[in-house]
Amino acid sequence: MADGAQDQSKMSTAKRIEAALLEDISAGELAPGQRMDEVRLANRFGASRTPVREALSRLTAQGILVQGEKRGVFVAEYTLQELSQIFEAMHEIEAACARIAAQRLNLLSRTAILNAQAACIDAAETGDRTAYLHANEAFHMAIYQATGNPYMAELASEFRQRTGPFRAKKFAEREDLISSAKSHQDLIDKIFSEDSTTASNGMRSHMTESFMAALKAN
Question: Which structural domain range is residue 49 located in?
């Protein structure tokens, strides 16, 4: 294999690992302060430690992971004040996404949102916390993508990744999952109304309730 092809293969592996870890962090499967074990990750992804290190380095550069005082990198931790500040910024971005999505809805974006909500309901009813956390992220991502603005979607996604481990703590019981899934329906109705103000206000209410629960759990 030529050097260029080897570099491309290595990079694709690093990106695959990065994407998987981002998904785990945003869904709260990796806890704040958790150390990233290079050997275990290499075994998990069937890769050498080189692409694992590249993925961890990229996530560290994004602030998703942080370098420890000793060797190793860890999932970022925040004080309650820092978490509140991040949530405040996220609150505004989510509301903007709902407002824009309401203005630009089409058949594909409506279907994506409804399919994500169906997955949330199924996971909530069975009490599958892990499945719900992933479905919940997919639900919000569908709203971001409905804006038709990839830069807005990327920015909103970054905040969800940072807060994932903290938001996940509010889902302790099956009833928490069911309550969250039900709250989505009201939000969907407001976005599907195609009224930007109604959609924005609906997201503000939804996220305020979510953030308050997350702060209380942390």
Answer: 3-75
